[in-house]
Amino acid sequence: MATYPAPAGSTSSPPLPRLLCPSWCVTHHGVHPGEDDGVHVGEPLRLRSGAVAQVCTTIHPVTGAQDGPIVLIDGEEHTLEAAAARGVPISRLSSPAR
């Protein structure tokens, strides 16, 4: 896991502690106010069907409590298992960000 500090001059209030990101996270932390800064999102992946899938999870910056991961398919939430059953290549969604 990579660690990203909130940059100096962040608009978040109060300043968030260092966040632990999943390796696939492409979110720029420290620019979103409040709890939105704890949302981790992967690169979108266009599926053969034309739909777009993204892995997403939230991790509370203080307690470390995690909700997810889930897979968003065209904005609709699915469990990892349900997304895999629909043919979403989960391993491609959760590979490290480039």
Question: In short, what is this structure?
Answer:
The protein contains 2 helices and 7 strands. The chain is mostly beta strands.
**Roughly how many Å is the radius of gyration?**
14 Å
Strand content: 25-35%
Task: Domain count, please report it.
Answer: 1
Number of helices: 2
Percentage of residues in helical conformation: 10-25%
Per the principal axes of the C-alpha atoms, what is the gross shape?
A: elongated
Total strand count, please? 7
C-alpha termini separation: 14 Å
The largest sheet is: 5 strands, antiparallel
Average pLDDT for all residues: 78
What series of H and E elements makes up the topology? EEEEEEEHH
User: Low-confidence parts lasting 5 or more residues at pLDDT below 50?
Assistant: 1-18
The oligomerization state is single chain
Q: Decide which structural class fits the backbone.
A: mainly beta
